[in-house]
Amino acid sequence: GAVVSQHPSRVICKSGTSVKIECRSLDFQATTMFWYRQFPKQSLMLMATSNEGSKATYEQGVEKDKFLINHASLTLSTLTVTSAHPEDSSFYICSARERQAYNEQFFGPGTRLTVL
Amino acid sequence: DAKTTQPPSMDCAEGRAANLPCNHSTISGNEYVYWYRQIHSQGPQYIIHGLKNNETNEMASLIITEDRKSSTLILPHATLRDTAVYYCIVRINAGGTSYGKLTFGQGTILTVHP
């Protein structure tokens, strides 16, 4: 299947700083990308959906000013956690899908964020 | 999207078939059944999907009941590396930003033991 990469795989930051996570589709053009968050021993929770060149659609309860999503190209989406706090520590996973390929949604390996 | 119900955990002996059930009694006619799995600290991995016919690929088989209210994922010869959380998801396959979202439930923790 297609490959989705994330960078960094693991990041530790101080409270109050911002962290950017990159998600790349390596061998296909991702017209739609999804960002999920997963707390320990819990399931994945969808945070937002982004389509290339347009604003992201956030799920209810997700602060769009805190979790900035940019999907500027067909192979790259970024999630910036602004003014991070310890409660933002989580496993962030992106997923990507090609236009019209509704059956095929590929996930990245995830980014472990720890806020001290 | 329709809600799914899965047992929280299951065990399976290595080399035996693992049969993971999923109930989706409120599924609508245009919703597909998807299975993903997540090995610890990794992103989910696609396994298989179907609408109403049984499906088979190199990883697994998917058996969907005639009324489509439940399905079973079958791993024919489970190995230790199949230990993971298995998610059964139903969703519409359509365009637009609101459709086609994968909504994950709690899944089934499958433990394959020697």
Overview of the structural elements:
The complex is a heterodimer of chains A (116) and B (114). In chain A, 0% of the residues lie in helices and 54% in strands. Chain A has 116 residues and is an all-beta fold. In chain A, the strands form two sheets. In chain A, strands 2, 4, 5, 6, 9, 10 and 11 form a seven-stranded mixed beta sheet that branches. In chain A, a hairpin with a 6-residue loop joins β4 and β5. The model of chain A has no long low-confidence stretch (mean pLDDT 92). By secondary structure, chain B is mainly β. Chain B is 0% helix and 46% strand. Chain B has no helices and nine strands. Chain B has strands at 9-13, 18-23, 31-38, 45-50, 55-56, 61-64, 70-75, 84-92, 108-113. In chain B, the strands form two sheets. Chain B has a five-stranded mixed beta sheet, with no helix packed on it. Chain B has a four-stranded antiparallel beta sheet with strand order 2-7-6-5, with no helix packed on it. The model of chain B has no long low-confidence stretch (mean pLDDT 91). The chains are: A mainly beta (116), B mainly beta (114). The interface between A and B is medium-sized, with 28 and 25 residues.
Percent strand of chain B = over 45%
Rg from alpha-carbon coordinates of chain B: 14 Å
Q: What's the mean pLDDT score of chain A?
A: 92
Helix content of chain A: under 10%
Q: Report the total helices of chain A.
A: 0
Query: Structural class of the helices, strands and pairings of chain B?
Result: mainly beta
Overall average pLDDT of chain B: 91
